[in-house]
Amino acid sequence: MSELNLAFSVSATSGPRRGKEKNKEHYYFMTVSEFKNHIKNDDFLEWEEVYRDNFYGTLKSEVERLWAQGKNVIFDIDVVGGLRIKKKFQSVPWPFS
């Protein structure tokens, strides 16, 4: 990945930590209330309530952090999230459009 300058974005979740997962490394862990507040503030590039009160999403600040490092961002998201991101960046050419 180094020659392509790629980096995975770290997703946010309201779900519990599993095993040895670390905050800001595996996920940005937050409470349901914190997650909903980020939704209200339009802080997410994309988000989804996967199960009742179990949210996942990509914070805009996470993508901006990686861009500031000159990285090309890889998203570990589902198809719906990918389509939401694509819609937000309609003017950007996509290799598989």
Can you walk through the features of this model?
By secondary structure, this protein is of the alpha/beta class. The protein has one domain: P-loop containing nucleotide triphosphate hydrolases (Rossmann fold, 3-Layer(aba) Sandwich). The chain has helices spanning 32-40, 60-68, 79-88; strands at residues 6-8, 12-13, 28-29, 44-51, 54-59, 72-74. It has a 4-stranded mixed beta sheet. A hairpin with a 2-residue loop joins strand 4 and strand 5 (54-59). It is globular, with a radius of gyration of 14 Å. It starts with 5 loop residues before the first strand and ends in a 9-residue tail after the last helix. 19% of the residues are buried.
What labels describe this entry?
single chain, 97 residues, alpha/beta, Rossmann fold, four-stranded mixed β-sheet, two-stranded parallel sheet, 3 helices, 6 strands
Tell me the fraction of residues in β-strands, as a range. 15-25%
For this structure, what is the CATH homologous superfamily? P-loop containing nucleotide triphosphate hydrolases
Morphology: globular
Number of helices: 3
Radius of gyration over C-alpha positions, nearest whole angstrom: 14 Å
Spatial order of the strands in the main sheet? 3-2-5-4
Instruction: Write down the CATH class.
Output: Alpha Beta
Number of strands: 6
Number of domains: 1
CATH architecture: 3-Layer(aba) Sandwich
Derived structural class: alpha/beta
- Topology pattern, helix = H, strand = E: EEEHEEHEH
Overall pLDDT metric:
91
Secondary structure: helix percent: 25-40%
CATH topology value: Rossmann fold
| C-alpha termini separation | 23 Å
Largest sheet, in brief, is: 4 strands, mixed
As residue ranges, the low-confidence spans are none
